[in-house]
Amino acid sequence: MTITLTPGAVSLAALEQLYRDQPTFVLDDTAYTAVRASASILAARIGEGEPIYGVNTGFGKLASVRIEDDRLADLQRNLVRSHAAGFGPPLPETIVRLIMALKCISLGRGASGVRPEVIDQLQAMAAAGVIPVIPEKGSVGASGDLAPLAHMAAAMMGEGDAFYQSERMAAGEALQAAGLTPIELQAKEGLALLNGTQASTALALVGLFEAWHLAKASLCTAALSIDAAMGSSAPFHPDIHDLRGHRGQIESAARLRSLLGGSEIRESHKEGDERVQDPYCLRCAPQVIGACLDQLRHAAKTLEIEANAATDNPLVLSDGAIVSGGNFHAEPVALVADLIAIAISEIGAIAQRRVALLVDPSLSFGLPAFLAPDPGLKSGLMIAEVTSAALMSENKALANPRSVDSTPTSANQEDHVSMACHAARRLLEMNRNLAGILGVEAMAAAQGIELRAPLKTSDCLQDVIATIRQHSPALTEDRIVSDDLEKLANLVSNQTCLAEAACDVAPMNL
């Protein structure tokens, strides 16, 4: 499968396809007209002897140092080598492929002054399975993701390491094995590859895609918990949510009504229920999950724009001017990464309170303590709930904003930075923690509903429980449940499982 990318117009759906399906990607042929034009303008300007930042000058604090024309290729090679200073384990290959695609999109806007061969090299490497080894740490999200992207550029030159067909080796060996030749970067091309927000944006996009999926899955686990706790469906009346008007809230309430529709458990306590109101974790699920959906949609729009942006420096403008600016500053990415982190934390926080409710006999309306078949002799899900609390607490700490933590770098030339890269990277861990919380909720809520027998939940939720039971049997005796929790975390992370039950929620980019 090959996907054709039109720079400036690549949709969020296409970006998710690039990540999830790992297709071969190529730029639309029409993009090369602007690419060739900007490269020609740059070459002409160099020939005129005009000083251009990063092309025939040094970088950062060394911008006043003029470089002779016969050393311009050396300048770019030295730039890549010196900036490949990342630290830590490598980013997953799936994310690096997305970084490579985003860089092609950015260069394809025709404002970077690079030759088409640079784009072709990235496309050919991705198609052949030559994926640069990029250490996960080292970017502060200003002047671009310099260290991560330098490791990508180094592999293009045959230096550093790369994965070839998922085996790590020297990049030169990987290119040779794939029948590819290292590229010799010309004037500005190293700088164009290193400047840009593609590492931060790719990480934020992956965090967004997983958070959106888990938010939808949480509507399903919430519905299970509401029925297990004999919660009221009255708070999901459409008029309540229409009167407030928030789209995500309206959609969430509608989906909960649909999931719970036809439940015998719900019908059994419509009359004579002494509880006037349910706790917030049940009653306010549409308000909380819906608000998170709305914020994820906002983040999606920002990241879609950023994925299509020209973010290196200097840029070759439409009038032929070559101008230094600051599009490499990743503040938009950092801010929405913080927003995604908060949403992930909140979805997990309210889910964890539902788990706590289900195991507490003073709140669960007749369920045994810790959902154990013989409380006291057996502890049931006592510590599974504690695990969910631990994951929730970790996510709360990880949700603290990164975008406010600027620190000057590069001899104070880069005196305000975004911290976008690690703002986005922590989303990977947060989503895994959230999947763990929702896995615990799925286990607890399924157990609670089955303890309501002979009453049955809705047909839809019975199907969900049947899926849960394929991965985690009902708890009839105490057993080690860590394997269950891993399997259920994977289940809620699966694109075709629990989130599919919440598929009435509209896509995030609409």
TrEMBL record:
Contains an active site 4-methylidene-imidazol-5-one (MIO), which is formed autocatalytically by cyclization and dehydration of residues Ala-Ser-Gly. The keyword Lipoprotein does not apply. It catalyses: L-histidine = trans-urocanate + NH4(+). It is an enzyme of class 4 (lyase). It is found in: Cytoplasm. InterPro entries: Aromatic_Lyase, Fumarase/histidase_N, HutH, L-Aspartase-like, Phe/His_NH3-lyase_AS. Keywords: Cytoplasm, Histidine metabolism, Lyase. Its EC number is 4.3.1.3. Pfam families: Lyase_aromatic. There is a cross-link at A142-G144 (5-imidazolinone (Ala-Gly)). Pathway: Amino-acid degradation; L-histidine degradation into L-glutamate; N-formimidoyl-L-glutamate from L-histidine: step 1/3. It comes from the Bacteria. One of its GO terms (cellular component) is cytoplasm. The modification 2,3-didehydroalanine (Ser) is found at S143. Its main location: cytoplasm. CDD domains: PAL-HAL (cd00332). GO terms for biological process: L-histidine catabolic process to glutamate and formamide; L-histidine catabolic process to glutamate and formate. Gene3D superfamilies: Fumarase/aspartase (Central domain) (1.20.200.10), Fumarase/aspartase (N-terminal domain) (1.10.275.10). GO terms for molecular function: histidine ammonia-lyase activity. Belongs to the PAL/histidase family. NCBIfam families: hutH, PRK09367.1. This is Histidine ammonia-lyase. It comes from Pontixanthobacter aestiaquae. The lineage of its organism: Bacteria, Pseudomonadati, Pseudomonadota, Alphaproteobacteria, Sphingomonadales.
